[in-house]
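User: Hi! I'm working on a homework problem where we have to compare a predicted structure to a textbook description. Could you give me the structure for the chain below?
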Amino acid sequence: MTLALTHALVLTAHGWRTDLAVVLEGGRIRALVPNAEASADTVRDLAGLSLVPGYIDVQVNGGGGVLFNTAPTVETIRAIGAAHRRFGTTGFLPTLISDDTAVMRAALAAVDAAFEAGVPGLLGVHLEGPWLAPERKGVHDAKWFHVPGEAELEMVCAPHRGVRLVTLAPDRVPHAVINRLAAAGVIVSAGHTAADYATVRAALAAGVRGFTHLFNAMTPFGSREPGVVGAALDDREAWCGLIADGHHVHPASLRNAIAARPRGKMLLVTDAMPPVGAADPSYVLNGETITVKDGICRTADGVLAGSALDMASAVRNAVQLLGLPLDEAVRMASSYPADFLGLGASHGRIAVGCRADLVVMDADCRVQHSWIGGVAMQEPALPK
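Assistant: Happy to help. Predicted structure tokens:
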């Protein structure tokens, strides 16, 4: 069966086009043709709405009322994916916050089982810790922090389906371990770290490929001590995740960071918690009940505890708070995360041969519809 999406404002690799229809077949984009030449089993007129690549979130802890740490199961992964799909996320990495090794093992097994079950949008897994620095622990429970042992390394480096992303502190983990992870195909990101500039530069040479939620939980950029932020801004190859919710980082800091880096190296992430896509604004983390207030997740002590951000809002904020063109904001949520994950040839773009992971949105970035692998979203989108 083929489906042609016509009369949309289509974001292609060469910019916005109003004259192209996007033809889907077998879960992929078969052709981009003039609207007048669109031929398919089904033709859907999008009446001028925007058609963009589906969003890819590499850091999503929860959604739909569930937290991956609390129940690392196929059902949890499915619920998280379904909740975030309403806001345009068609590819995601369920993210495990620092925890016991047994929970890590259960999470990896759940991801493998979720691939087997065909959970829509699943791209892999993100282990955020527990190889982190207590000085920059954020909301993580430092009792789990440690230097990885051989058994853990074998577990994380074992053959696997999908992407494996690990956030670690390069001041706590030997560079030989970073090299081993990278050699095994694990993407290594620096985060929750008290490292200095020189240590981070050496870690980049050893295999670090990105920075987890830039500015948050890392040594800041100073005049004589560039820190982790300075090393990230100074590097031309690594990718940086940004939480554009207006709370985690001041918009001016985000604007300056984006201006300092090569185009294509900054990506939007949500760091989302269970309230996204759920009616209940509260959740339990590390035994403490956290309630979202004014869009902010904080502990009783005022520590940021993830976010209540969704990708549609992140894209909107990138335009309204950061002053980015809409096409660049969308690429930061789709093409650039795909490149970071090594999936740029198949994901994150509206191009012939790419997966049919697509989002229809209105002028205010509200998601109206989506497809994952050419399969349409069945439930109505939630207004945002």
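For your comparison, note the following. The chain has ten helices and 23 strands. Confidence is low (pLDDT under 50) at residues 380-384. Good luck with the assignment!
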